């Protein structure tokens, strides 16, 4: 494909026609997770996060949306995971989790001590499972089932 004078001038001036992504981020457009995985052995600019790596390209948009919806929780989870051992959980972290209406994330397994690091690891595991699985659609009943249910409620 022949380049125009404008695009040649842009390249000469040091501008790139490639979309700008923050350094170190996933290759998928819109994803702000760290790009930590690649299948290349010869050097590449295509680094993917653990959610997009190996996923079919048709699912990237859904995955990116689920990551974006949980971005504040991922930030808190990463920060808590990097805490030193036996660090207490900050009130700011708890407030962020509660503001997202995700008190379920504060419930650690019974065998885990309540520390910042353990909570962060727990959060990351739960959030990763949510992002990797397809979003569940509510099951709609048949019209007959809906009528029968409404009659039971009205009776």
- Tell me the radius of gyration: 23 Å
Main sheet record? none
Mean of the pLDDT scores? 82
Proportion of helical residues: 40-55%
Q: How many β-strand runs?
A: 0
Total number of helical segments?
6
Shape: flat
- Low-pLDDT stretches are none
Q: How many domains, as an integer? A: 2
> Span between N and C termini?
72 Å
- How much of the sequence lies in strands comes to under 5%
Structural class: mainly alpha
Protein name: Phage protein
Explain how this protein is built.
The longest helix has 17 residues, at 116-132. With 155 residues, the chain is an all-alpha fold. The protein folds into 2 domains: 1-55, no CATH class; 70-132, no CATH class. The chain has 6 helices and no strands. The mean pLDDT is 82.
How would you briefly describe this protein structure?
This protein is mostly helical and 155 residues long.
Short key terms for the protein model shown above:
155 residues, mainly alpha, 2 domains, 6 helices, flat
Question: Strands, helices and their partners?
Answer:
Blueprint: H1 5-12, H2 60-69, H3 71-81, H4 91-99, H5 116-132, H6 143-154
